[in-house]
Amino acid sequence: MSEKAVKDELRLFALESIVCQHISQLYQLLPEGTFDAVRQQAIEGTRRQTFAGADAAHSDLFSAELETAIDRLYGMIGHHLEMTQRRRPSTR
Q1: Domain that holds residue 37
Q2: CA trace torsion 63, 36, 15, 53 (10° rounding)
Q3: CA 74, CA 85: separation in Å to the nearest integer?
Q4: How does pLDDT run across 29-64, given as a tens digit for each residue?
Q5: What does the angle CA 77 – CA 82 – CA 85 come to, to the nearest 5 degrees?
Q6: Is residue 26 included in any domain, yes or no?
Q7: CA gap 38, 81 in Å, rounded
Q8: Which pTM value belongs to this model?
Q9: Taking a C-beta distance cutoff of 8 angstroms, is the pair 24, 77 a contact?
């Protein structure tokens, strides 16, 4: 992997991480269960996604890659949510 490719990947990961941290802050304000429902809806949406101009095999491949990417990002958001919840003092 070239130095430029490494830098590009790390910049992309940094952006994804920051965006996921901020989105997790929004989910903390919403009713419990909202995050899981939205995540499931997003995953289901990727499975129905089609790509104009792509044949069926390529469209399926693109949908699978999109599903993997979306699932990974929601996983990052979920991780940030869990970390924030662990740091909060217990009110029970």
Answers
A1: 3-87
A2: 20
A3: 16
A4: 999 999 999 999 999 999 999 899 999 999 999 999
A5: 125
A6: yes
A7: 14
A8: 0.85
A9: yes
Question: Looking at this protein, which amino acid is placed at residue 62?
Answer: F
Q: Give how many domains the chain has, as a whole number.
A: 1
50-58 long-range contacts (CB < 8 A, ≥24 apart) are: none
Classify residue 92: in a domain, yes or no: no
**26-57: buried (b, 16+ CB within 10 Å) or exposed (e) per residue?**
ebeeeeeeebeeebeeeeeebeeeeeeeeeee
Position 34, amino acid: T
Q: What DSSP string describes the chain? A: --HHHHHHHHHHHHHHHHHHHHHHHHHHTSPTTHHHHHHHHHHHHHHH---TT--HHHHHHHHHHHHHHHHHHHHHHHHHHHHHHHHSPP--
